[in-house]
Amino acid sequence: MDAPLLAIENLRTYFYSRAKRAFIRSVDGVSLDVARGETLGIVGESGSGKSVTALSAAGLVTAGPGVISGRIHLHSNGAQRDLLDGLEKYARVTEQDGRVMAVEKDERGWRKHSEALMAGVRGKEIAMIFQNPRSALNPYSTIGKQLVETIRLHTSLKGESEARERAVHWLERVRIDSPRLRFDNFPYGMSGGMCQRAMIAMALSAEPSLLIADEPTTGLDATIQSRIVDLLAQLKTETGITTLLISHDISVIQRLSDRIAVMYGGTVVETGRAAEVLAPQAQARHPYTAALLASIPSAETIRRKSYLQAIEGEVLDTIEVPRGCRFYGRCNRVTEAIRESCAGLEPPLEEVAPGHKVRCWLYPAAGKA
Amino acid sequence: MKLAAIKPVSRVLARELGITALLLFGVSMVVFAILYLAPGDPLNVLLEGQSPRSELALGMREALGVSQTWYGQYAAWFSKMLQGNFGNSIRTGLPVLPELARVGVYTLTLTLGSLALTLLIAVPIAVHAAAHGETAGNTAATIAAYVLSAVPVFWFGYIMVYVFIHWFGMFPLISGTAARQEHAWLYFLVPIFVLGIASGTLSEMIRHLREELSRVLAEDYIRTARAKGAPVWRHAFKEGFLIPVTEIMSAKIPFLLGGAVIVEQVFNWPGMGRMAWQAAQDRDFPVIMGIALVAAAFVRLGNLLQRVVFTAVNPRASRE
How many domains, in total, are found in chain B? Predict the structure, then answer.
């Protein structure tokens, strides 16, 4: 098998909170692979670290992270590069009992080096689309101009008129009506759905190897959301682009993903092929995934007018990470047999079926480790 | 500028010019009212201490064609003004408008020069602070700018006179005479420096630009620009730089003119500020009216410029 296009190994992104004098461990040891041509969906609640994972991969974490460590390998055009290569030089981390105690960091050097690593990657190899498309497009520039800028930056089309033609072509491909008229529109005169289409066109116009879609349907009306999902599905079959899709909405993930990673508290708790992870009668499943699935309204629940099942408790505060399983405090499937392990020891991510891994003490495969 | 932006810009221009005309009319009325109600008579200068009620005074009024009633006086001034005649100075007898144009150039040099200097200092500090956060260097520079802005401009002016002219003997005290010498522009640098540093504009410019720019740099669309590998400055320039800079410039022009009056006194600068000072002491009505109108027009011009830039740059503003 080919090497995966994007391989994230043991990524840690910590932020230092001055107010609490502690590290927020937004992403805490995440490993993910995205194979060429597939769509990997990352699902989880707000604060699970899914967006920060994506932003780290694109080198867009700006808020001065305390640490970013791990490896992010990108294999494209026959070249392989590590997007975090050499960054550790700029930060000295003092650890104690495996916990980060202090960080001395050359912020400017770090940022400069990160920008150097990302030059020629961001926008060209990795393109991104974001939530709230109306504020994510430059309000002071027309849609067309923003597209032309991307095309001239990243493709061989350097001339103004060629780039214009290509931009109109991309607006057509994302099913924007009368693209030549829309070309001169400013984002404020367009609906959220239209803006998201324009942003998708902009991202794809650079012909990237990887598309990161960070909550592409958040901030849109419900009907528009499903149209955008349809569009993404169509573009996926047309272009076969490799996608890293991030959403808190498991139904969006369900419709678009080939494989799924479920994140909780900064770690991946379950990963596998979409059909297996979301199968109604899955053999083995993380209690958190089960709870997420139970919170989607289905035809059945609507017919019975029963309440949706909410997940009890609060999202994990990633400052005070518990010793045991991160989901222990909210888990409703703890049995007496495993309670001790759940409370005291973090379960490893173990394979329960080929290609399907779960981080839970419930499953014997994990127990044998 | 795109063709589409010309229409809204011309509309704003027309509206602002209309407002300016009304405003100037209002200014002339208010200034006239203040002058009329204030004690003192402009003819005192000419009468040299004789009673204003004397025969001589009445004869002089008649000779000058001064109306007895206040509305008559204002109407006479106003109708002449519409024809471009601002009258003659009572003290010198010279026509006001050419005189204003002559000294106005000096004041313009002083205010625009100091504005440029303020920008030259404020912009790098503000941009650095917005882009890199607070560092030791830019924090020190900002504090220094705040301290300098808090210094009274006349005091700072005298200190500079003492340092440059008394200690170093570098410049002649009277800038007016210096204007006719070689390298005259060199002598202008001290007053420009004083007004640029100490007029109180510096700190506000830094603060406004830094806050606006760091707000814009945190916007979602800047993140998008970074994500697509485009230069951040290209995207942040309009909202984060151009708009705040023109805003603060237009807001600070009145303060610069106020500061210019003081600086011109301190440095004997032959500008409008000193002319205004002299005219106020003489109750020289035509000169005061002329200066008030020119100053008001100058302030409005700054405002106009800001509105035009804002409309040309901001697509939302042009739809209003």
Answer: 1
